[in-house]
Design brief:
mainly alpha; 14 helices
Length: 292
């Protein structure tokens, strides 16, 4: 659920110049990384992990498809070979889902001359399905909020939902924006005001490096529309667009004009919200969003 967008802490309408390494420095840096066999300083490369521990790699597709998803699986296997925590198992389930979605698409591409590529991708798909099933059974009754939400959201497991809500009632979700977003997804069906407040709490706990999914801003925009709060809906749509969510801003602008919204003022507020989010200083009430 959390995404590192690696965006600069700047308003949307300002262009930035980006400094570059000199050519010589870049060459030496690249050479050092290649010679060390590392993707980052002090970290084994994926190629080296596969060479040292083939079992982490051999049951995945061998071609170049799904490179990043495959790398995530391999590195997670390597880093947690001695055992994983509940939260790490939750992360692995999400990685397997991402890999499965990618390799399933790749497996559907037929190769007239290279049938072995189809077979390799199908092998990866079957591995993903096997591992999702294995981890699913392993974590089914885990006393953990992440895994409880996973089993509720994926399998409608009512016992898992009950465990998750018990964590919420005990106040064990309130320092984690990930879990607060998950709670809001449950609340939104029965308590829209409560869901909005929970999403505000989640946003109070993010910064540039740990930003929530852009879906959160779309949800806040939809909640505002449901309550005929067009200015707030336009605000959150602007922010959703900044975080690369699919938004029809032309439609939102038409609604804002029809409702006589001060568009310039709302866009200035959107810039401030983005800056506050990325600085870890967001407060909906300090910014006056509740009055829109």
């Amino acid at each position: 659920m959390l995404i590192n967008y690696n965006k600069p802490i700047k308003p949307r309408h300002i262009l930035h110049s980006v400094g570059k390494f000199s050519t010589i420095r870049s060459v030496f840096l690249l050479a050092a990384l290649v010679l060390s066999g590392c993707d980052n300083w002090g970290q084994k490369s994926i190629a080296q992990i596969c060479k040292d521990s083939p079992a982490y790699c051999n049951d995945l597709n061998p071609d170049a498809w799904c490179r990043s998803e495959k790398a995530d699986i391999i590195r997670h296997r390597h880093e947690h070979a001695e055992g994983a925590s509940h939260k790490q198992n939750y992360a692995m389930l999400l990685k397997w889902e991402a890999y499965k979605a990618c390799v399933a698409k790749a497996a559907g591409i037929r190769h007239i001359k290279h049938r072995e590529k189809e077979a390799g991708r199908m092998k990866g798909l079957l591995t993903a399905e096997r591992e999702l099933k294995r981890l699913g059974w392993q974590t089914k009754n885990a006393d953990d909020p992440y895994l409880s939400y996973y089993h509720w959201s994926r399998f409608s497991d009512t016992q898992a939902k009950q465990r998750f809500m018990q964590f919420a009632e005990a106040g064990r979700l309130h320092e984690d924006p990930d879990l607060l977003v998950a709670l809001a997804s449950i609340q939104i069906k029965v308590d829209e005001d409560g869901a909005r407040e929970t999403l505000y709490q989640a946003l109070e706990r993010v910064d540039e490096k740990t930003m929530v999914s852009s879906d959160v801003f779309l949800s806040l925009s939809t909640l505002a529309l449901d309550n005929n709060r067009t200015a707030a809906a336009y605000l959150w749509a602007q922010i959703a667009e900044y975080y690369e969510a699919p938004v029809d801003m032309a439609l939102y602008e038409k609604m804002a004009i029809a409702a006589e919204v001060d568009i310039d003022k709302v866009e200035e507020l959107a810039d401030q919200v983005i800056a506050d989010l990325e600085n870890g200083e967001f407060s909906a009430y300090t910014l006056g969003i509740h009055r829109l």
